[in-house]
TrEMBL record:
Organism: Wuchereria bancrofti
PANTHER family, per database record: WD REPEAT-CONTAINING PROTEIN 36
Protein known as: WDR36/Utp21 C-terminal domain-containing protein
GO cellular component: Pwp2p-containing subcomplex of 90S preribosome; small-subunit processome
Domain WDR36/Utp21 C-terminal: 1-199
Pfam family, one: Utp21
């Protein structure tokens, strides 16, 4: 039976529309700088009068270093996904790659799909196919595939002519999607019929 991931909708539902959301949230006008900005130096009161407070340079350096380390760790996570995907050779490896993508933030997932190298397109589709065959995370597969096709449709069109394996993977994925959707459709009809029967029985 096909199952869903159980993740909150905020983790995947807006993924295909992130570019629209970003465009909508862009500021209409650029931020205006004030004509005259006040200039303050922090000061500390003393017994005689006051003295300027010494800036904590070490803390500033540490903060910048932490920011750089955070950015570096994000890049390492992002590159590790592509590496895992390219090295995947069986279902277990594809599931591992999917799980690593699944727990990233929605913007990181979008970024990962955007920067996929052309040689990894087939592997990405095989990953989705493997997840579908395991009957899990149906809505995530739909969201990821939607973004993937939106970004790479031109590459896929050209690559399918050169790569027969890619065309076969797309065909298998299409068949598996149709089969999975038929299962969900039947389940929804069954639940609707059951609810209608309960409603009628209680009246």
């Amino acid at each position: 039976m096909v199952t869903l991931s159980g993740l909150a909708p905020s983790r995947w539902v807006n993924l295909p529309y992130l570019d629209v959301i970003r465009e909508r949230n862009k500021p209409i006008e650029p931020v205006r700088k004030p004509k005259t900005a006040p200039f303050f130096l922090p000061s500390v009161s003393t017994l005689d009068s006051f003295e300027f407070e010494k800036m904590d340079v070490d803390a500033d350096v540490i903060e910048r270093r932490n920011v750089l380390m955070a950015k570096r760790s994000v890049l390492e996570i992002e590159s590790s996904f592509a590496e895992t995907l390219l090295q995947a050779s069986d279902d277990a490896h594809f599931i591992t790659a999917f799980e690593s993508l699944k727990w990233m933030s929605i913007s990181t997932i979008d970024f990962q799909i955007h920067i996929l190298p052309e040689r990894a397109l087939n592997s990405f589709l095989k990953m989705l196919l493997t997840v579908l065959r395991n009957h899990c995370d149906f809505e995530l597969v739909q969201a990821y595939l939607s973004v993937f096709l939106k970004i790479n449709r031109n590459k896929l069109w050209i690559s399918c002519i050169k790569d027969d394996d890619l065309g076969k993977t797309l065909s298998k994925l299409s068949d598996e999607l149709r089969k999975s959707w038929e299962e969900i459709d039947q389940l929804m009809l069954l639940n609707a019929s059951l609810l209608q029967w309960i409603k009628t029985a209680l009246l």
